[in-house]
Design a protein that fits this description.
heterodimer; A: mainly alpha; two-stranded antiparallel ribbon; 8 helices; B: alpha+beta; Ubiquitin-like (UB roll); Fumarate Reductase Iron-sulfur Protein, Chain B, domain 2; 2 domains; 15% strand; elongated
C-alpha cells in the first residue's frame, strides 16, 4: 500500500485546499498577471507594425527587438490574413518558444495557469488525468531546439544595440541607444543562465578533471551556474525590458515621445 | 512562558481529527519540544517519530501550519502569532498513528535503482578522483531522507503516482550516481520510462521544503531531464550520434 485514503480532516484534493496560513496565493497571482500583461502587449505590438511608409518598429538607428532581425515582405500573398502581415511573425517564434519552454517559466506556468498545483502543499482540481510532461506537455523537451536560435538572436540584438549609437549625423548617444544596448545585455544574461545552456557547457560531463577541454568547460559551467541561480530574475527583467524597448521605439516613431540626445 | 493553542492530528488512516491542546511554551522552543511536552503532560498516547532533535536524522517530518517541515527545526516563535498551530502527519504516505506515517514505500523504490558500479581500478588497485569532480554529488549526499520532498511533490501527494514516479528524493539519488565520475551505468532509459521523470513538471516545491537546502530541482532533476533530452529529444545530439556511427572505423 503506497498511499492510504486520508480521513476527511486531512483531505488534500480540492482546488486551493490547504492548511497553509501564509500568503501562498501572492506568487501565482503576480507572476500570472505580469506575464499576461506582457503577452497582451507583445501580441498587440507585433500585430501593429504601423503603416508601410512609416513603421512604428524603427526610428533612425533604432529597431524594436520584436522585429529584429527585420524581414520585410514586399508583397504579401492575397490569401494571407491582413492581421498577420507583420515582420514580427518571422522573429517572435524563437524567443517565445524559448521562454515558453524555459524551466523557470514551466514552474510558474503550471502553478499559475494550470493550477497543477497552484502552490506547494495546496490542493488541485478534484479529477484530472495528470500526465506531467509525459503527455501533451512532452513538447517542453524542445527547449533546446529554441535555445540554438535564441543564442543567434543574442548576437543579432547586440548588433542592433551597437547600431543604435550610429545616427545619420554620425556617432551619438540617445536615450534610445541606452535602452537598446541594455536590452541585449539582459537578454544575454537570461539566455546564458538557461538550464539547458548550463547543461551543454559542462553539466553533461561526469569528470571535470579528466581532460584539458573538460577542465575548461568546468570553468565555464561554474560561471553559468552562478548566473543560473538568478535565472528567475533574468527572466523577468529581460522580459520587461524587451517590452519597454519596443514601447520606447514605438513612442518615438509615432512622435509621442522625443528621443533625447545625450551626445 | 505563554500558553499557545496547538491543533494536533489524532487518529490513523481511516479516522481521525485535529484535536485542540493548550501548551505552555518557553522562549526558543521548537514544535517538537511542544509535542514532547504534550506527550508528557496531556496526551501520553500521542505517537510521533523522532530521534536526533537536531535536523540530522529526518525522523520528525510533519506538516506544520500546512507546510512540510521538520518539527525539530521549526521554532515556535517564528510561526505566525494569534492563530492555532496545526501539526499534521505527512499526507503522501499512509498514516500509522497520529503523526507517524508509513514511509516504507521509499525503501522499496530505492531498491529499484541500479547501484553504484565503478569502472575498473587503476593499475595500483585504486580509484582516483578530484574534489571538483564530486562537488555536485556531495550536495546530494547531504540528504537526510526526511521525505519532505516526497510529501510535498504533487505527483505523489495529489496524483498518487507512486507506482510510476520515484519522486524527488530518489531522483537526487539517481543524479548522485549518474554524475559520479567513476560510475559506469547509464540510467537514462530507466529515468524516462520506469522512474517517470517526465511526471515532474518543475514546480520546485521539493527544493522549497528541503531542510538541507539541497537545490533539488535545479541541480538534480533538471540536469537529469537534460540528460534524457540529450538521448531522446535533441536534434543536434541526434545528428552527431548518426555522424559518429557513419564515420566510426569498423572494428576488425
Amino acid at each position: 500500500m503506497h498511499k492510504a485514503t486520508l480521513p476527511k480532516e486531512l483531505e488534500t484534493t480540492g482546488l486551493g485546499k490547504t492548511a497553509r496560513k501564509d500568503k501562498w496565493l501572492f506568487e501565482p497571482l503576480w507572476t500570472g498577471l505580469g506575464f499576461a500583461i506582457f503577452v497582451v502587449y507583445s501580441t498587440w505590438g507585433a500585430l501593429n507594425p504601423g503603416p508601410a511608409g512609416h513603421p512604428y518598429y524603427e526610428w533612425g538607428p533604432y529597431l524594436s527587438p520584436f522585429f529584429s532581425p527585420l524581414f520585410l515582405v514586399k508583397a504579401w500573398p492575397d490569401w494571407w490574413p491582413k492581421i498577420l502581415r507583420t515582420p514580427a511573425l518571422f522573429v517572435l517564434w524563437a524567443p517565445l518558444g524559448f521562454r515558453a519552454t524555459c524551466y523557470y517559466f514551466r514552474k510558474f506556468f503550471y502553478r499559475t495557469y494550470l493550477l497543477d498545483p497552484p502552490g506547494c502543499a495546496v490542493g488541485e482540481a478534484r479529477s484530472h488525468n495528470y500526465k506531467g510532461e509525459k503527455g501533451f506537455f512532452i513538447y517542453q523537451n524542445l527547449h533546446r531546439w529554441f535555445l540554438y536560435p535564441a543564442v543567434a538572436l543574442v548576437i543579432i540584438l547586440f548588433y542592433d544595440g551597437v547600431k543604435a549609437f550610429f545616427f545619420a549625423d554620425g556617432f551619438g548617444i540617445g536615450v534610445g541607444s541606452l535602452v537598446l544596448i541594455i536590452e541585449p545585455i539582459l537578454i544575454a544574461l537570461f539566455t546564458f543562465s538557461c538550464n539547458s545552456f548550463r547543461h551543454l557547457v559542462g553539466g553533461n560531463l561526469d569528470c571535470y578533471s579528466c581532460s584539458f577541454s573538460n577542465r575548461a568547460r568546468y570553468q565555464v559551467w561554474g560561471k553559468v551556474s552562478l548566473l543560473n541561480r538568478n535565472h528567475m530574475f533574468w527572466f523577468w527583467i529581460s522580459l520587461g525590458w524587451v517590452g519597454f524597448s519596443d514601447f520606447y521605439v514605438r513612442m518615438v516613431a509615432m512622435g509621442i515621445w522625443t528621443d533625447w540626445r545625450i551626445l | 512562558m505563554e500558553k499557545l493553542i496547538f491543533k494536533v492530528y489524532r487518529g490513523d488512516s481511516g479516522k481521525g481529527e485535529l484535536k485542540e491542546y493548550q501548551i505552555e511554551v518557553d522562549e526558543g522552543m521548537v514544535v517538537l519540544d511542544a509535542i514532547h511536552k504534550l506527550q508528557a503532560t496531556q496526551a501520553p498516547d500521542l505517537a510521533c517519530r523522532w530521534n536526533c532533535k537536531a535536523g540530522r536524522c529526518g525522523s520528525c517530518s510533519a506538516e506544520i501550519n500546512g507546510f512540510p517541515k521538520l518539527m525539530c527545526m521549526t521554532r515556535i516563535d517564528e510561526l505566525p502569532k494569534g492563530n492555532p498551530i496545526t501539526v499534521e502527519p505527512m499526507k503522501a504516505f499512509p498514516i500509522i498513528k497520529d503523526l507517524v506515517t508509513d514511509v516504507s514505500w521509499n525503501y522499496e523504490v530505492n531498491k529499484t535503482i541500479p547501484p553504484f558500479t565503478p569502472k575498473p581500478p587503476e593499475p595500483d588497485g585504486t580509484w582516483r578522483m578530484q574534489q571538483k569532480d564530486i562537488d555536485r554529488v556531495q550536495e546530494f549526499r547531504k540528504c537526510i531522507e526526511c521525505f519532505l520532498c516526497q510529501d510535498v511533490c504533487h505527483v505523489l501527494r495529489n496524483h498518487n503516482k507512486h507506482s510510476q514516479f520515484i519522486g524527488p528524493r530518489f531522483l537526487i539519488r539517481v543524479a548522485s550516481l549518474e554524475m559520479h565520475p567513476l560510475d559506469t551505468v547509464d540510467r537514462r532509459e530507466l529515468l524516462k520510462d520506469q522512474f517517470g521523470i517526465g511526471f515532474c513538471n518543475i514546480t520546485k516545491c521539493c527544493t522549497e521544503v528541503c531542510p538541507e537546502r539541497i537545490t533539488i530541482t535545479d541541480n538534480a532533476i533538471i540536469p537529469l531531464k537534460e540528460r534524457v533530452v540529450d538521448r531522446y529529444y535533441d536534434p543536434l545530439a541526434w545528428l552527431i550520434r548518426q555522424l559518429k556511427r557513419v564515420f566510426k572505423p569498423s572494428a576488425k
